[in-house]
Amino acid sequence: MSTATLTIQQQDSAHCLHPFTNFKELNAKGARVIERGEGVFVFDSEGNKLLDAMAGLWCVNLGYGRQELVDAAAKQMQQLPYYNLFFQTTHSPAVELSTLLAELTPEGLNHAFFTGSGSECNDTVVRMVRHYWASKGQPNKLEIISRNNAYHGSTMAGASLGGMGFMHAQGGLPLPNISHIDQPYWFEEGQGQDPQQFGLERAQQLEQKILGLGEDKVAAFIAEPIQGAGGVIIPPDSYWPEIQRICDKYDILLIVDEVICGFGRTGEWFACQTYNIKPDLLCLAKGITSGYLPMGAVIVSDKVAQGLTEADTEFAHGFTYSGHPAACAVAIENIRIMQQENIISHVRDDIAPYLAQRWQELASHPLVGEARSKGMVAAIELVADKNTLQRFSKEQGAGGVCRDICINNGLIMRACGDTMIISPPLVITKQQVDQLITLAKQSLDDTL
Ligand code: PLP
């Protein structure tokens, strides 16, 4: 370890508190220092080149080092580095981006409420749907239904919507009037059952929950099209149509959290197009700027926007950085590049099918119980016994070991327990997918 790296690590331990981190464990070990990025690779302070199969945190969709995005931010910062959308002011980057998003998102979704992150989007929707129902004369419609093992961010409302056991209970959560149903995670919870029947039954839990709470009490249901941080949980095809039917039947607003899935990850601009879902509210972040600047947006349907407008009262909610001009400029440029480089068809017709085919090769590895992918997200389930699909014991758990081995081999994969997941930059090439698979195979062998 170089002296320069050690110095950074010491200062880091002394002064920087990391998100989602066991501080004691990190301080004992020292953080890896990431210095720069290029394409699908990042480089650490010891000169190691790592294939970033997580695109940072599911966000660097166009890869590292895109000069156009840097230039867009710099140009906007020179002209107007900051102004807000409060107190009846606006600015061109926010107007241009909201217009562009209205064109790109499915029909009927025409209004953007900007935020600084995915968590802020989900805090926003909690307040917005309740405000909407109150405006419609139904103030008792307060309940929001989410799912176990969902991830919707780590602000108080975002984490309350989340359902990751102990993690989401820390700090006295959840907030009231939020409840959860089970997830459509066939490998973990549905084995022995037909996957489509399992998907249907998991969706029907929504109906049971609505009836249990009282339909006049339920404001909305929120879900990720594919659960990301929960372990890339791809629902059976039967799941989403049934969820849509139930939301329509009981007039429950459907909030689709596409913080990960949005902007091409599933091979369409938005995963609600992939799954034919009709959201009332659509949460976007991450890929909206390819992670170059923090930004989120709640895309609101005409129906909800009309309700909010008719209310003729202030929606008392927003952030200093809602519609930050430089973030908007980067988002506009990000979309322009995606259009110019045909990123959607690159994903849908070319690289996602290739990844799917190569990823399946991992399924035959003795450690792997299942390999699955959809678009540019993929997962493998690590098992102790390939025949019975028996998991490792909690103490034994192989995911953390495999993740560390991957990094030592030059590959960034993430471990969700014993589920290894990837979400590579969308610009990854076939040759780089080959490299990813080679490194993954080698890492699995080394984990054995
Ligand atoms: N929603 C989903 C589906 C996410 O995956 C995440 C983050 O990973 C969030 C919300 C929170 O986004 P942020 O970390 O930008 O607050």
UniProtKB/TrEMBL annotation:
It comes from the Bacteria. Coiled coil: none annotated. One of its GO terms (biological process) is gamma-aminobutyric acid metabolic process. Its cofactor is pyridoxal 5'-phosphate. It holds the Pfam family Aminotran_3. Keywords: Aminotransferase, Pyridoxal phosphate, Transferase. One of its GO terms (molecular function) is adenosylmethionine-8-amino-7-oxononanoate transaminase activity. Its EC number is 2.6.1.62. Belongs to the class-III pyridoxal-phosphate-dependent aminotransferase family. NCBIfam families: PRK06105.1, PRK07480.1. This is Adenosylmethionine-8-amino-7-oxononanoate aminotransferase. It comes from Agarivorans albus MKT 106.
